[in-house]
Design brief:
58% strand, 4-stranded antiparallel β-sheet, mainly beta, Neuraminidase, single chain, 24 strands
């Protein structure tokens, strides 16, 4: 399978694809360019939203409302009026910034942190924000990345990239508490696990930074089921959208095998 080039942003770090079925739009963040892009794949219309410093992730919380984790805090953007409202800022240490994030099955915003401009080993955290209060659910991380929940909502999968692994947590949807269970997938090749998503069969799709691919994994057995080669080495994240579409984000580099780094790709999973 060969993914289709949808848009080239020349982004140093294009990340966090998030699909809205209500809007039939995709959002992605260009972290270091401090920008959120709203993309309509059908019309090819792209709208940009400037952010308060580097933006680690953004999610649709309603049809016309998004939350984003920016260097200056968590913000809400009304997509009708484009009014932006500051919500909370749990990671106020200046040497840290926010990174990947998702909504949990109950609609809480789960997002992690990492060092800003330099690696800060074990200084990262994963936060949970329900719209009113914010708490820490995982501590001691370095580069908080991929998050995914199974269809029952009782299992959280999480990637702290330097560990080169995917960790499994028991997840209490009522309280939002995450309890570590075990490591389920370990990476021993060139690629480092970055962002990920989960499909309707509860298989994980994991983007590989420097690995030039997205791979499908069975989280129960740790078996790699499928590989999608991407025409650039820094693959950052991916997300599912009906019917059987996988959006893939990438990052720019000076590597000769990365001419399309910073682009957005689409893989139709049912294509032969």
């Amino acid at each position: 399978m060969t993914p289709e080039l949808l848009a080239y942003f020349n982004s140093t770090l294009l990340e966090g694809p998030c699909w809205s079925e209500e809007r039939h739009e995709l959002l992605v963040v260009s972290i270091e360019q401090s920008c959120i892009y709203l993309i309509n794949p059908q019309s090819q219309h792209i709208q940009s939203i400037p952010t308060h410093g580097p933006v680690g992730c953004a999610v649709f919380v309603e049809k016309n409302k998004i939350w984003s984790a920016e260097k200056g805090g968590i913000y809400e953007t009304n997509l009708t009026s484009m009014e932006r409202t500051f919500l909370v800022h749990p990671e106020s240490r200046g040497y840290m910034r926010y990174n990947d994030g998702k909504l949990d099955p109950q609609g809480r915003f789960i997002f992690g942190s990492m060092g800003f401009n330099s690696i800060q080993p074990n200084e990262g955290k994963v936060f949970s924000f329900d719209g009113e209060s914010c708490k820490t659910i995982i501590e001691g991380t370095t580069i908080s990345n991929g998050l995914a929940w199974n269809s029952k909502g009782d299992t959280l999968y999480f990637i702290d990239t330097p560990t080169r692994s995917v960790r499994k947590y028991n997840y209490d949807c009522a309280s939002g508490k995450a309890t570590f269970l075990k490591t389920i997938i370990s990476f021993d090749g060139i690629g480092l696990p970055d962002g990920m998503c989960i499909d309707q069969q509860d298989n994980l799709w994991i983007a590989e930074w420097e690995g030039g691919q997205v791979c499908k994994w069975d989280p129960n057995t740790g078996e790699k089921l499928e590989t999608i080669k991407v025409p650039c080495n820094r693959v950052t994240s991916c997300c599912m959208a009906p019917p059987d579409r996988l959006f893939i984000t990438t990052a720019r580099s000076d590597h000769s095998h990365n001419p399309l780094g910073g682009a957005l790709f689409l893989q139709k999973l049912n294509s032969k």
